Amino acid sequence: MNTITFAPATPLSTMHVVWDWNGTVKDDLDDHVQALNATLPALGGNLVDRETYRAKHTVPIPDFYARLLGREITEQEWLSSDGAFLDHLRAQPVRIRNGAVEMMTALHEGGHTQSLLSLCPHDTLVREVDEAGIGHFFERIEGCTGASGGTKAAPLAAHLDALGLTGQGHRVLLVGDAIDDADAAHANGAHAVLHTGGLHHPAKLAAAGHPLAETLVGAVALGSRLIARAAHPARV
To answer: Which segments in the chain show pLDDT lower than 50?
Structure first.
C-alpha cells in the first residue's frame, strides 16, 4: 500500500477529517446488495447485481427503491423493508477497507483530528466501530438517531457544531463514497473527496464532477491538497 505522511500540524494547518462509514471505512458493498435483495421480492421487485445497485443508489433511500421498482413505496413498505435491510446488515461481520487503519494512524500521528458520521443507526455504528477496534481515532462517532433514509447535510452541520468546527469548514475534509456526502460537505463549507470503491458507481460520481480517488489514502492526499490550495492559493 502506498503511504502518506503529513507535515506536523499547527493551529493554522490542522485538518479535520470526517469519515463516512458504510461503503467508505466499512467495506460492505456486497453486504448492501445482499440486504437489498432480501427486501425486494416482498415489494414485487427483481433482484439486483452490484452494478445495478451502484448505478441506481441514491438518497433519500425511498427514492432508491422507487428507481428499482418503477413506483413509489408506501410508508409501511418503507418501514418494513428498512427494518429487514438493517437486520441483514447487522448479521454480517465488520470488514474495514484496506488502508483505512494506516491512514487514520498517519493522520493521528500528524496531529490532525478525525470523526465518524454515518446515516446508519447510531447503536449499530457504535457496536461496529467497537468491533473493528478503531474508536480511539475519533473525536466523535455519530450515527442516525431519528428516522432513517435521509440526507447528510443537516446531520453534518450538527456534527461540526458539536465538534466546535462551525464556520471552519475550510479545514474540514469529508471522505465518503456517495454524491450526498459531497453535497453535504459543500452545504457546510467543507471539502469532500469521494473514493470510487463504495456504494456509488464511479461513472456516476465522475458525472457529478466531484474530486475522486481510488483509495482512502488517495482521497486524504487529494483532500489535504485541496485544503492547502484554498488556504494558500498562490502557493499550491
So the answer is: 1-2, 236
